[in-house]
Amino acid sequence: MTSTTRWAGLALALAGLAVSAYLTVAHFAAGALLCAEGAVVDCGTVTTSEQSELLGIPVAVLGLAFFAGMTVLCLPFAWRDRRLHWLRLGSVAVGVLFVVYLVAAEFLLIGKICLWCTAVHVITLALAGVLVTDALRRSSL
Question: Are the CB atoms for 89 and 131 separated by under 8 Å?
Fold first, then answer.
């Protein structure tokens, strides 16, 4: 694994943490969400929809917890522990599955797209790409 992979993973985890923190604040503070509203792009509709909570927990809070954990798992010390390697991969796999659900909910159930949510989805997929690429490199050594 290269130093670049480590820093890319950490940077993506921190970016996801920042956007998720913003979405969490926006969930609890009316009027804090900055996003265009229109026919297709409408963050307010998405973030207040029935699908914006899972078992009573705001999806933004789940994203915040996910990226807080991924940030810790992408810190320099964590790259040296093989057990954390598998935890990192398993966690990001769950994150990707959740992204698939959320994108399907946006398109099929809500009929609107949230640009902030899309940023979190892209970051999650990019983080998965970095971690899977690292795993493939490790297995070929």
Answer: yes
Beta-carbon contacts of residue 87 (< 8 Å; ≥ 6 apart): 73
pLDDT along the chain (141 residues), means of 10: 82 98 91 81 91 94 98 93 91 98 96 95 97 85 57
Decide: 21 and 10 in contact? Cβ < 8 Å.
no
Spell out the domains of the chain, with CATH numbers in brackets: 3-139 (1.20.1440.130)
Q: Are 52 and 58 in contact (CB under 8 A)?
A: yes
C-alpha radius of gyration, the chain, whole number: 16
Neighbours of 65 (CB within 10 A): 14
Entry pTM: 0.92
Distance of CA 69 to the CA centre of its chain: 11
